[in-house]
């Protein structure tokens, strides 16, 4: 299609609804056309839209990120710096007694108590995104919701810092302060997480594929799906760059105290909040969509009750009931909801993956503490997870993926997610092998950290070098690039424009289910049962990856069609919502 053809297609005549006053419809259509003109300024470059033959024969490329997307990425980097730098200390903070025989500690609840509380924190952090999504999609919009929950997050961090100073711990404020802090922080991080991932993708405006001639004369296709994939790869890279805070906070914990690490995290988060506020004028901000979430649940109930996915449509009600139903939505809204359900079905397998992923900040830390550290804090080893991601993301984005596209080898989301599950299973199998090596070494063998390993009252673990654990973290990191990044991408691209935050929260909720499963496994977090728990998780993750692929592989063939739905949306979000409300207003 030529550029001229595209312009003719956009400049279509207005449509009218008999139930809305003509004057009101004229205003709505004019606003819709103005918004569409703005939207289409970046939709097609010199060559217009490609034909089906061109889509198949020409190379697809991604665009560079807009400045506003980088600003959002910086905010997320600061938040993840805080989250990982803080939560990475929780296992030791809860596990070890204050100035106890195992080194600097605080609450002294032991292995199971520490694993239980840290797992609960992960669970809580991934339940609360639902609240953040409802606030954003129905009331405040993504940007204002992020700002609100940043304030909540700061309060929780302040409580954690104040109750972790030695004087507060000595006076018994540690446990109560820790519980209150993780509840408040979990509420804050949940409100941010459900909105920051869709907000960064909102900064990219192109919806349709477009032809472009490169400086070398090659005709290529700018593919919005590939750009969204790149956005989330960079977004995830920033997340893991931020998580390198664990290079600093374990040493601060060891040589100064937990409070110093928590204070560093508080300062970094305050800096990220400042960037968010100062960059306000650069962001693309979509308005909230009214009662979109409650309407979605009402429509879902109608689908279940009538055992028909189209039952909530006004047209279906008119055809099958013979009356024009008064419903707070139109047929298009139900089509969007059905599309969102496709993404939610894909997410059903993720809880198993998150159980595996959660091991690196819990049981892996405990495992590292059972080996000879040689001056390396046991919770420092977690950094090999983000380091592996930071190394492999540029390699995949600049070498592997472009090469696969040149060779016309498809590597679509369902395939990537399945591969992520399989790689995660390798991490668990390797962890089981390491645990076996620990039990096979002296001086404590199957009872690590026994009195025989103590020097000057501090237990140093069995005679296995801590560095041997590194590949387990690398496998986890590589699996995240395939499973977690693709999940973020899928949650955004398959969600309708009016429900981006909500579908993102459904994806994050699977992490909460994973944490709940991990909580159920807490009784197995003792020696020597934990080795067999690792083996069981390896088998479960591998089988889930294979089953997942065979159930959902047909969705790879539908990828372009589903991604094109937003481009075919007949009216931009805000005008469509206003038109919908106007059609329901009393005449």
TrEMBL record:
It is found in: Membrane. GO terms for molecular function: dipeptide transmembrane transporter activity. The keyword Membrane applies. It is a multi-pass membrane protein. Residues 564-587 are annotated as: Disordered. GO terms for cellular component: plasma membrane. Gene3D superfamilies: MFS general substrate transporter like domains. The chain crosses the membrane at residues 146-169, 175-201, 231-252, 258-279, 340-357, 387-404, 416-439, 472-493, 505-526, 532-552. It comes from the Eukaryota. Pfam families: PTR2 (PF00854). The keyword Transmembrane helix applies. Keywords: Membrane, Transmembrane, Transmembrane helix, Transport. Belongs to the major facilitator superfamily. Proton-dependent oligopeptide transporter (POT/PTR) (TC 2.A.17) family. This is Major facilitator superfamily (MFS) profile domain-containing protein. It comes from Penicillium cataractarum. The lineage of its organism: Eukaryota, Fungi, Dikarya, Ascomycota, Pezizomycotina.
